[in-house]
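Lab notebook page, bench 4
Experiment: in silico fold of construct C2
Operator: M.H.
Input chain length: 464 residues
Purpose: comparison with the prior construct
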Amino acid sequence: MAKTLFDKIWDKHIVFQEIDSPAVLYIDTHLIHEVTSPQAFDGLRKRGIKVRRPDKTVATTDHNVPTVDQHLPIKEILSRKQVQTLVKNCEDFGIELYGLGHPFQGIVHVIGPELGITQPGKTIVCGDSHTSTHGAFGAIAFGIGTSEVEQVLATQSILQQKPKTMRITINGALKKGVSSKDIILYIISKIGTGGGAGYFVEYAGTTIQQLSMEARMTICNMSIEMGARGGLIAPDEITYSYLKDKQFAPKGDEWDLKLAYWKTLFSDDKASFDKEYEFAAADILPMITYGTNPAMGIHISEQIPTEIPVHSSEESYFKSLKYMGFEKGETMLDKPIDYVFIGSCTNARIEDLRLAAQIIKGQQKHSSTEVWVVPGSQQVMKQVKAEGLDKIFEAANIPIRQAGCSACLGMNEDKVPAGKYCISTSNRNFEGRQGPGSRTLLASPLTAAAAAITGKITDPRQFL
C-alpha cells in the first residue's frame, strides 16, 4: 500500500496500539530546556523514577539566558533560578547539558540540526511548540507539554493520537528578495492560523526542493503557526550533504547504513493526503505582518486589507488593528520602526545572518532604531566570526549579541518596550509577545535588515 512520508516514520515507531486508541510512540530524541522541564523532573523525584534513556535526552539553556555578559550571574531572579534548576536536574539524572559557556550551547532548535542530532526518520519531541523545525530533515518532530515531558523522560515513549496528513506543494522559482520566511508567511496568510489544525504537513514541490536546509527549517518551524501539529520535508542530497561530518551524525559504515534508510523516506507516488494545497512561487513577494497573529500578513507594498480576512472575525480584526495602531487601507511602507530583532529559532542560523549582512554591509544603522542581532548558537557565532560577518555589523554600529532566544518571547532581559514597533524575524506577533504592550511585525532577515538601515518599513529589494 502506498504510504506518505509521515506514515512511514509513524508506523515504524509504534510500540503498542489498541484499536481506536492513541498509539504508544517511541521517541528517538528528547530535547529539553530550562522552562518546561522543572516540573517534569519534580514529578520523577516524587515517584522515585529515573530517566529511562538519558543518552537519548539532550539539554540546553536558551529561553531565559541573557544575550550580553553571559559570563556574569543572570540578573532576573526567575530566569536565574530556572537555569540553575536545569543544571541541577541534569546532574542528578545524568543528562548531557549544553549550558552557558559550553561551545554547543544555543537555541534548542538550532543546535539539534547543526550538531547532527537531528536526522531523517527520527521522532523528536521537546517541551516547545517550534520543535516542528526538525521536520525539515524528514523527521516527525512536535512540541509537547510539561506532563508529556515527564512521560518521555520516564518511558522514552509518548501516548499520541495520529494526526491527519496535509501536503502543501509550491512550484517555481522565487523572485529576487523573496526568502523562505516570505514563503511561510504567505502560506499562513492564505489558509489562516487554524488551517492546519489536526494535520501534520508535508511541504513539497520544486520550490521546496531548491531550498537550503536553513530555509527548510524556517518553513517547518512556522508550521505550528497555521495550527498544524508539525511540518516535514522529504530528505534529499541537500539534507545528506548538510549532515555529513556533523558532530553527532553517523560515521563510516553506520553512515552508509543510515543513508540507505534515509533514501526510502519519501511519500510514495500514489500516497493520499487528507488535504492538499498548491501555491506558485511567482505569486510570493516580501511579506510583513500588520496584526496580532501570523496570518495577518501582506506583501510589503500592499495596503492593510479594507475587508475582514476570511480567517479573521470582525472583532479580532479591529481589536488587532487598534492594538497595533494601524488603520485599514493604510500602506505599510515607510512606517517608522523603533526596534529590529534578527534572531530566534526561526531565523538565527548562519544563512539568516548572511542575508542580513548582505544588506547591512557598507551601511549605517539608523539613529532612531535599536537593532539586536542574536546568533542562534555558539556554533553560529563561531561561524559569524570566521566569515567576518561580525565586522560588517559592528561597522554599521550593530554589535552582535550572544546566543539565546532573546527578544522572541519577552521572557528574558531582551524586551521591546510598550508601544514600540519591532520588525522581528521570529515566529509570533501576539499581543505583548516581545514584552508587555510591544508591537511586533514579522518579516524576513532581508526586510528586517532594510529597516535597520532606514528606520522604517522598507522593501528590501531596493538594496539588492
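Observations: The first helix runs from residue 5 to 12. Residues 290-463 form a domain with the Aconitase; domain 3 fold (CATH 3.30.499.10).
Next step: discuss at group meeting.
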